[in-house]
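I have been asked to look over a protein record a colleague put together. What it holds is a sequence and that sequence's fold in C-alpha coordinate form. Please read both lines and tell me whether the C-alpha coordinates look consistent with the sequence. I do not need a full report, just your reasoning and any doubts. This is what I was given:
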Amino acid sequence: MLRSLLMTVCAVAPAVLPVQAVADTVTLRVLGQPSGSGLIAQQKELPYFEALAEKTGLDIKIEYLPVDVAGIPDTDGLRVLRSGLFDIVSIRGPQVSRDEPSVLGLDLIGQNTSFEAGRAHVAAFMPYVDSRLQSAFNAKLIGMWPAGPQVIFCKPEVNSLADLSGHKVRVGDQSAANFMAKLGATGISMPFGEVQQSLARGVVDCAITGPASANSGGWPEATTTVLPVPLQLAMNGYAINLRSLDKLSAEDQATLIAALEELTNEIWDFSEELYDDAMRCNTGATPCERGKPYSLTAAPVSDADLAAVSAAVTEISYPVWAEQCNAVAADCAETWQATVGALLAK
Protein backbone atom coordinates (compact mmCIF):
# COMPACT_ATOMS: atom_id res chain seq x y z
CA MET A 1 0.00 0.00 0.00
CA LEU A 2 2.79 2.46 0.96
CA ARG A 3 4.73 1.61 -2.17
CA SER A 4 1.62 2.19 -4.27
CA LEU A 5 1.01 5.58 -2.61
CA LEU A 6 4.61 6.72 -3.20
CA MET A 7 4.39 5.73 -6.85
CA THR A 8 1.18 7.74 -7.17
CA VAL A 9 2.77 10.85 -5.58
CA CYS A 10 5.83 10.60 -7.81
CA ALA A 11 3.65 10.28 -10.85
CA VAL A 12 1.54 13.30 -9.93
CA ALA A 13 4.34 15.60 -8.67
CA PRO A 14 5.81 16.56 -12.06
CA ALA A 15 2.38 17.74 -13.18
CA VAL A 16 1.91 19.83 -10.02
CA LEU A 17 5.20 21.72 -10.11
CA PRO A 18 4.62 23.63 -13.39
CA VAL A 19 1.18 24.71 -12.15
CA GLN A 20 2.77 26.16 -9.01
CA ALA A 21 5.42 27.97 -11.09
CA VAL A 22 2.75 29.58 -13.24
CA ALA A 23 0.79 30.64 -10.16
CA ASP A 24 3.85 32.49 -8.83
CA THR A 25 4.10 34.72 -11.92
CA VAL A 26 2.76 38.20 -11.20
CA THR A 27 0.72 39.75 -14.00
CA LEU A 28 0.96 43.52 -14.25
CA ARG A 29 -1.57 45.31 -16.45
CA VAL A 30 -0.14 48.54 -17.88
CA LEU A 31 -2.31 51.38 -19.20
CA GLY A 32 -0.06 53.19 -21.67
CA GLN A 33 0.05 56.45 -23.57
CA PRO A 34 -2.35 56.86 -26.53
CA SER A 35 -1.27 54.74 -29.48
CA GLY A 36 -1.15 57.74 -31.80
CA SER A 37 0.54 60.18 -29.45
CA GLY A 38 3.96 59.90 -31.03
CA LEU A 39 7.38 58.31 -31.02
CA ILE A 40 7.88 58.30 -27.25
CA ALA A 41 5.00 55.86 -26.87
CA GLN A 42 5.89 53.87 -29.98
CA GLN A 43 9.68 53.66 -29.69
CA LYS A 44 10.34 53.92 -25.96
CA GLU A 45 7.39 53.10 -23.73
CA LEU A 46 5.84 50.13 -25.55
CA PRO A 47 9.12 48.31 -26.36
CA TYR A 48 10.41 48.84 -22.82
CA PHE A 49 7.34 47.31 -21.20
CA GLU A 50 7.30 44.43 -23.70
CA ALA A 51 10.89 43.59 -22.70
CA LEU A 52 10.53 44.43 -18.99
CA ALA A 53 10.32 40.85 -17.67
CA GLU A 54 13.37 39.74 -19.65
CA LYS A 55 15.26 42.95 -18.87
CA THR A 56 14.76 42.73 -15.10
CA GLY A 57 14.67 38.96 -14.65
CA LEU A 58 11.50 39.37 -12.61
CA ASP A 59 8.86 36.63 -12.69
CA ILE A 60 6.24 38.97 -14.13
CA LYS A 61 3.95 39.07 -17.13
CA ILE A 62 3.20 42.46 -18.68
CA GLU A 63 -0.12 43.15 -20.38
CA TYR A 64 0.23 46.55 -22.08
CA LEU A 65 -2.74 48.45 -23.49
CA PRO A 66 -2.75 52.04 -24.83
CA VAL A 67 -5.32 54.20 -23.08
CA ASP A 68 -7.21 54.97 -26.29
CA VAL A 69 -7.33 51.31 -27.31
CA ALA A 70 -8.67 50.49 -23.84
CA GLY A 71 -11.45 53.02 -24.41
CA ILE A 72 -10.63 54.79 -21.15
CA PRO A 73 -10.53 58.61 -21.01
CA ASP A 74 -6.98 59.73 -20.19
CA THR A 75 -8.52 62.00 -17.54
CA ASP A 76 -9.40 58.85 -15.56
CA GLY A 77 -5.82 57.61 -15.20
CA LEU A 78 -5.60 58.04 -11.43
CA ARG A 79 -9.09 56.63 -10.82
CA VAL A 80 -8.24 53.55 -12.86
CA LEU A 81 -5.05 53.18 -10.85
CA ARG A 82 -6.86 53.43 -7.52
CA SER A 83 -9.48 50.91 -8.60
CA GLY A 84 -6.83 48.34 -9.44
CA LEU A 85 -8.20 47.82 -12.95
CA PHE A 86 -4.65 48.48 -14.12
CA ASP A 87 -1.53 47.98 -11.99
CA ILE A 88 0.69 50.57 -13.69
CA VAL A 89 -0.57 53.68 -15.44
CA SER A 90 1.36 55.96 -17.77
CA ILE A 91 -0.33 59.05 -16.38
CA ARG A 92 -0.84 62.14 -18.52
CA GLY A 93 -0.09 65.03 -16.21
CA PRO A 94 -2.39 67.79 -17.44
CA GLN A 95 -5.31 65.41 -17.86
CA VAL A 96 -5.15 63.74 -14.43
CA SER A 97 -4.56 67.06 -12.66
CA ARG A 98 -8.32 67.48 -12.55
CA ASP A 99 -8.39 64.70 -9.97
CA GLU A 100 -5.12 65.66 -8.25
CA PRO A 101 -4.16 69.33 -8.73
CA SER A 102 -0.68 68.88 -7.24
CA VAL A 103 0.37 67.11 -10.46
CA LEU A 104 -0.03 70.38 -12.35
CA GLY A 105 2.44 72.00 -9.95
CA LEU A 106 5.17 70.04 -11.71
CA ASP A 107 4.65 71.99 -14.94
CA LEU A 108 2.84 75.33 -14.69
CA ILE A 109 2.96 77.66 -17.69
CA GLY A 110 6.31 79.45 -17.65
CA GLN A 111 7.81 77.10 -15.03
CA ASN A 112 9.70 74.71 -17.30
CA THR A 113 10.91 76.58 -20.36
CA SER A 114 13.89 74.26 -20.86
CA PHE A 115 14.73 70.61 -20.23
CA GLU A 116 17.31 71.61 -17.63
CA ALA A 117 14.78 73.66 -15.66
CA GLY A 118 12.22 70.89 -15.96
CA ARG A 119 14.53 68.25 -14.49
CA ALA A 120 15.32 70.45 -11.49
CA HIS A 121 11.73 71.48 -10.80
CA VAL A 122 10.33 67.96 -11.17
CA ALA A 123 12.95 66.53 -8.82
CA ALA A 124 12.09 69.20 -6.26
CA PHE A 125 8.30 68.80 -6.24
CA MET A 126 7.77 65.15 -7.19
CA PRO A 127 8.17 63.79 -3.63
CA TYR A 128 5.20 65.89 -2.57
CA VAL A 129 3.09 64.73 -5.53
CA ASP A 130 4.06 61.14 -4.71
CA SER A 131 2.85 61.59 -1.13
CA ARG A 132 -0.46 62.94 -2.44
CA LEU A 133 -0.95 59.99 -4.81
CA GLN A 134 -0.14 57.51 -2.07
CA SER A 135 -2.70 59.00 0.33
CA ALA A 136 -5.46 59.80 -2.17
CA PHE A 137 -5.05 57.10 -4.83
CA ASN A 138 -3.11 54.29 -3.11
CA ALA A 139 -0.43 54.64 -5.78
CA LYS A 140 3.29 55.33 -5.85
CA LEU A 141 4.62 57.86 -8.34
CA ILE A 142 7.83 56.41 -9.74
CA GLY A 143 8.96 58.92 -12.33
CA MET A 144 7.95 61.87 -14.50
CA TRP A 145 9.06 62.64 -18.04
CA PRO A 146 8.36 65.38 -20.62
CA ALA A 147 6.58 65.07 -23.93
CA GLY A 148 8.71 68.09 -24.85
CA PRO A 149 8.50 71.88 -24.96
CA GLN A 150 4.95 72.88 -25.83
CA VAL A 151 4.81 75.39 -28.67
CA ILE A 152 2.03 76.94 -30.74
CA PHE A 153 0.88 75.82 -34.19
CA CYS A 154 -1.47 78.14 -36.09
CA LYS A 155 -3.48 78.03 -39.29
CA PRO A 156 -3.35 81.83 -39.71
CA GLU A 157 0.09 83.39 -39.87
CA VAL A 158 1.28 84.69 -36.50
CA ASN A 159 4.51 86.44 -35.54
CA SER A 160 4.16 86.80 -31.78
CA LEU A 161 2.06 85.89 -28.77
CA ALA A 162 0.19 89.16 -29.22
CA ASP A 163 -1.10 87.89 -32.58
CA LEU A 164 -3.07 85.18 -30.78
CA SER A 165 -5.58 87.74 -29.55
CA GLY A 166 -9.06 86.92 -30.81
CA HIS A 167 -8.11 83.38 -31.84
CA LYS A 168 -9.35 80.03 -30.51
CA VAL A 169 -6.43 77.97 -29.21
CA ARG A 170 -6.48 74.31 -28.23
CA VAL A 171 -4.80 73.96 -24.82
CA GLY A 172 -3.65 71.03 -22.73
CA ASP A 173 -4.64 72.23 -19.29
CA GLN A 174 -6.26 75.05 -17.32
CA SER A 175 -2.92 76.74 -16.74
CA ALA A 176 -2.50 77.19 -20.49
CA ALA A 177 -6.13 78.30 -20.86
CA ASN A 178 -5.59 81.04 -18.28
CA PHE A 179 -2.48 82.22 -20.12
CA MET A 180 -4.35 82.33 -23.43
CA ALA A 181 -7.09 84.41 -21.78
CA LYS A 182 -4.44 86.90 -20.64
CA LEU A 183 -3.36 87.23 -24.27
CA GLY A 184 -6.94 87.82 -25.43
CA ALA A 185 -7.32 84.34 -26.92
CA THR A 186 -9.82 81.63 -26.02
CA GLY A 187 -8.38 78.39 -24.68
CA ILE A 188 -10.29 75.28 -25.76
CA SER A 189 -9.68 71.81 -24.35
CA MET A 190 -10.03 68.83 -26.69
CA PRO A 191 -8.50 65.36 -27.09
CA PHE A 192 -5.29 65.20 -29.12
CA GLY A 193 -6.84 62.96 -31.75
CA GLU A 194 -9.45 65.61 -32.64
CA VAL A 195 -7.08 68.53 -33.09
CA GLN A 196 -5.87 68.00 -36.65
CA GLN A 197 -9.38 67.99 -38.12
CA SER A 198 -10.45 70.83 -35.85
CA LEU A 199 -7.60 72.95 -37.22
CA ALA A 200 -8.48 71.99 -40.79
CA ARG A 201 -12.16 72.89 -40.29
CA GLY A 202 -11.52 76.10 -38.37
CA VAL A 203 -13.00 74.84 -35.11
CA VAL A 204 -9.76 76.13 -33.56
CA ASP A 205 -7.25 78.53 -35.12
CA CYS A 206 -4.18 77.41 -33.22
CA ALA A 207 -3.16 74.53 -30.97
CA ILE A 208 -0.46 73.82 -28.41
CA THR A 209 1.65 70.65 -28.32
CA GLY A 210 5.23 69.49 -28.80
CA PRO A 211 6.77 69.52 -32.29
CA ALA A 212 7.16 65.73 -32.39
CA SER A 213 3.54 65.11 -31.39
CA ALA A 214 2.37 67.67 -33.95
CA ASN A 215 4.40 65.93 -36.62
CA SER A 216 3.02 62.50 -35.72
CA GLY A 217 -0.52 63.90 -35.66
CA GLY A 218 -0.22 65.62 -39.04
CA TRP A 219 -0.83 69.08 -37.63
CA PRO A 220 1.47 70.77 -40.19
CA GLU A 221 -0.97 69.68 -42.90
CA ALA A 222 -3.59 71.99 -41.38
CA THR A 223 -1.38 74.88 -40.22
CA THR A 224 0.99 77.42 -41.71
CA THR A 225 3.08 78.64 -38.79
CA VAL A 226 4.79 77.40 -35.66
CA LEU A 227 5.60 79.88 -32.88
CA PRO A 228 8.38 78.08 -30.96
CA VAL A 229 7.99 79.89 -27.63
CA PRO A 230 8.30 77.13 -24.98
CA LEU A 231 5.34 77.34 -22.61
CA GLN A 232 5.80 74.16 -20.56
CA LEU A 233 7.07 70.58 -20.98
CA ALA A 234 3.82 68.52 -20.79
CA MET A 235 4.81 66.15 -18.00
CA ASN A 236 3.76 62.52 -17.95
CA GLY A 237 4.85 59.72 -15.68
CA TYR A 238 4.51 56.25 -14.23
CA ALA A 239 2.63 55.27 -11.11
CA ILE A 240 1.89 51.84 -9.67
CA ASN A 241 -0.94 50.67 -7.44
CA LEU A 242 0.49 49.96 -3.97
CA ARG A 243 -1.46 46.71 -3.67
CA SER A 244 0.06 45.57 -6.93
CA LEU A 245 3.53 46.54 -5.76
CA ASP A 246 3.05 44.52 -2.58
CA LYS A 247 2.61 41.36 -4.66
CA LEU A 248 6.39 41.50 -5.16
CA SER A 249 9.12 40.91 -2.59
CA ALA A 250 11.00 43.94 -1.29
CA GLU A 251 13.95 43.07 -3.53
CA ASP A 252 11.76 42.67 -6.60
CA GLN A 253 9.96 45.92 -5.81
CA ALA A 254 13.29 47.74 -5.84
CA THR A 255 14.21 46.11 -9.16
CA LEU A 256 10.91 47.11 -10.78
CA ILE A 257 11.09 50.69 -9.50
CA ALA A 258 14.69 51.03 -10.70
CA ALA A 259 13.66 49.79 -14.15
CA LEU A 260 10.84 52.31 -14.46
CA GLU A 261 13.15 55.09 -13.26
CA GLU A 262 15.58 54.03 -15.99
CA LEU A 263 12.78 54.27 -18.55
CA THR A 264 11.89 57.80 -17.45
CA ASN A 265 15.54 58.87 -17.73
CA GLU A 266 15.76 57.41 -21.23
CA ILE A 267 12.63 59.32 -22.25
CA TRP A 268 14.06 62.62 -20.93
CA ASP A 269 17.02 62.22 -23.30
CA PHE A 270 14.88 60.94 -26.17
CA SER A 271 12.42 63.81 -25.77
CA GLU A 272 15.20 66.35 -26.24
CA GLU A 273 16.39 64.57 -29.38
CA LEU A 274 12.85 64.46 -30.74
CA TYR A 275 12.26 68.16 -30.15
CA ASP A 276 15.28 69.24 -32.19
CA ASP A 277 14.59 66.78 -35.00
CA ALA A 278 10.85 67.53 -35.17
CA MET A 279 11.43 71.28 -35.34
CA ARG A 280 13.64 70.69 -38.36
CA CYS A 281 11.13 68.29 -39.93
CA ASN A 282 8.17 70.62 -39.45
CA THR A 283 9.94 73.56 -41.04
CA GLY A 284 11.58 71.73 -43.94
CA ALA A 285 15.10 71.84 -42.51
CA THR A 286 17.59 68.98 -42.45
CA PRO A 287 18.49 66.54 -41.12
CA CYS A 288 14.95 65.23 -40.60
CA GLU A 289 15.51 61.71 -39.32
CA ARG A 290 12.48 60.70 -37.25
CA GLY A 291 9.52 62.59 -38.68
CA LYS A 292 7.79 63.59 -41.88
CA PRO A 293 9.10 66.70 -43.63
CA TYR A 294 6.77 69.71 -43.86
CA SER A 295 7.23 73.39 -44.71
CA LEU A 296 5.84 75.41 -41.83
CA THR A 297 7.10 78.92 -41.21
CA ALA A 298 8.88 79.29 -37.88
CA ALA A 299 7.94 82.66 -36.42
CA PRO A 300 10.74 84.55 -34.67
CA VAL A 301 10.93 84.24 -30.89
CA SER A 302 11.23 87.69 -29.33
CA ASP A 303 12.60 88.65 -25.94
CA ALA A 304 9.19 90.14 -25.17
CA ASP A 305 7.48 86.78 -25.73
CA LEU A 306 10.01 84.93 -23.60
CA ALA A 307 9.56 87.50 -20.84
CA ALA A 308 5.77 87.15 -21.02
CA VAL A 309 6.00 83.38 -20.58
CA SER A 310 8.43 83.65 -17.66
CA ALA A 311 6.20 86.22 -15.94
CA ALA A 312 3.18 83.98 -16.37
CA VAL A 313 4.26 81.74 -13.50
CA THR A 314 3.84 84.36 -10.79
CA GLU A 315 1.20 86.49 -12.52
CA ILE A 316 -1.17 83.89 -13.95
CA SER A 317 -0.56 80.18 -13.54
CA TYR A 318 0.65 79.94 -9.94
CA PRO A 319 -2.03 82.08 -8.23
CA VAL A 320 -4.93 80.20 -9.84
CA TRP A 321 -3.34 76.79 -9.34
CA ALA A 322 -2.36 77.50 -5.73
CA GLU A 323 -5.96 78.21 -4.80
CA GLN A 324 -7.17 75.03 -6.50
CA CYS A 325 -4.47 72.84 -4.98
CA ASN A 326 -4.84 74.26 -1.47
CA ALA A 327 -8.55 73.48 -1.63
CA VAL A 328 -7.55 69.80 -1.81
CA ALA A 329 -4.38 69.88 0.32
CA ALA A 330 -3.73 72.82 2.63
CA ASP A 331 0.07 72.50 2.41
CA CYS A 332 0.23 72.30 -1.40
CA ALA A 333 1.18 75.87 -2.36
CA GLU A 334 3.44 76.24 0.67
CA THR A 335 5.39 73.13 -0.37
CA TRP A 336 5.64 74.34 -3.96
CA GLN A 337 7.04 77.69 -2.82
CA ALA A 338 9.62 75.96 -0.63
CA THR A 339 10.77 73.73 -3.52
CA VAL A 340 10.06 74.99 -7.05
CA GLY A 341 9.50 78.57 -5.95
CA ALA A 342 12.88 78.64 -4.23
CA LEU A 343 14.60 77.41 -7.41
CA LEU A 344 12.82 79.97 -9.60
CA ALA A 345 13.87 82.76 -7.23
CA LYS A 346 17.57 81.99 -7.65
Notes: DSSP finds 14 helices and eleven strands in the chain. The first helix runs from residue 2 to 24. Residues 151-232+289-345 form a domain with the D-Maltodextrin-Binding Protein; domain 2 fold (CATH 3.40.190.170). The chain has a mean pLDDT of 92.
